[in-house]
Design a protein that fits this description.
This protein has a 4-stranded mixed β-sheet, covered by helices on one side. A 3-stranded mixed β-sheet has the order 5-7-6. It has 6 helices and 7 strands. The protein has helices spanning 34-44, 61-64, 107-118, 144-150, 155-166, 173-181; strands at 27-30, 49-55, 71-78, 81-87, 99-104, 130-132, 138-143. By secondary structure, it is an alpha/beta fold. The chain folds into 2 domains: 6-87, 2-Layer Sandwich (Signal recognition particle alu RNA binding heterodimer, srp9/1), CATH 3.30.720; 99-181, 2,3-Dihydroxybiphenyl 1,2-Dioxygenase, domain 1 (Roll).
């Protein structure tokens, strides 16, 4: 798909607009299911919403390969973080080379995000706090307590916490803290 100048973009005027524009935002390339993915993510994260939408117009039908009037692009916000979704087609797919880290304050949050984001994803891709969702996007569901452990000055404690983490799929704060604090 070729870049289209701004004057060719026709945004859905019924959609809300994002209140602030981030300097840098992730743009996710989907194969026709960007809106489904955005709605799914918005249902998981608090303080989230769908923003502006770009529908395919006559001037971009040929270059986009998408039907006239279908969704080409949308903005969505997940807990204050702006994302963009593009229905770009099957040419590109997601890989583990890029993942989104969800920093969790406690085990309840870890459990919530692990369950919701992992639903329908590839169970073989679950390891060390990483998972793939049903759209193929990689996520890291990480308790902030683990970050505190692995940045400790005592390298023996760090090594024990890391060794415990390496044995897990979903991260368990209590198990990692036990390994971390063992004398």
């Amino acid at each position: 798909m070729r870049y289209q100048p701004a004057q060719n973009l026709h945004y859905n005027t019924h959609a809300c607009t994002m209140s602030t524009i981030q300097k840098i935002s992730p743009n996710l390339w989907f194969n026709g299911n960007a809106e489904e993915a955005a709605n799914y993510y918005v249902s998981i994260f608090p303080n989230s919403r769908i923003g502006r939408k770009l529908l395919v117009t006559e001037d971009v039908v040929k270059d986009s390969g998408r039907p006239l009037g279908s969704l080409l692009f949308l903005e969505f916000e997940l807990d204050g973080q702006l994302f963009q979704g593009l229905n770009g087609g099957p040419q590109f797919t997601f890989s583990e080379a890029v993942s989104f880290v969800v920093n969790c304050k406690d085990q309840n949050e870890v459990d919530h995000y692990w369950e919701k984001l992992g639903a329908g994803g590839d169970p073989n891709a679950q390891m060390c706090g990483w998972l793939k969702d049903k759209f193929g996007v990689s996520w890291q569901v990480v308790p902030t307590a683990f970050i505190d452990m692995i940045t400790d000055k005592d390298q023996m404690k760090v090594n024990r916490a890391m060794a415990a983490m390496m044995q897990m799929k979903k991260l368990d704060i209590a198990e990692m803290q036990l390994a971390f604090s063992v004398h």
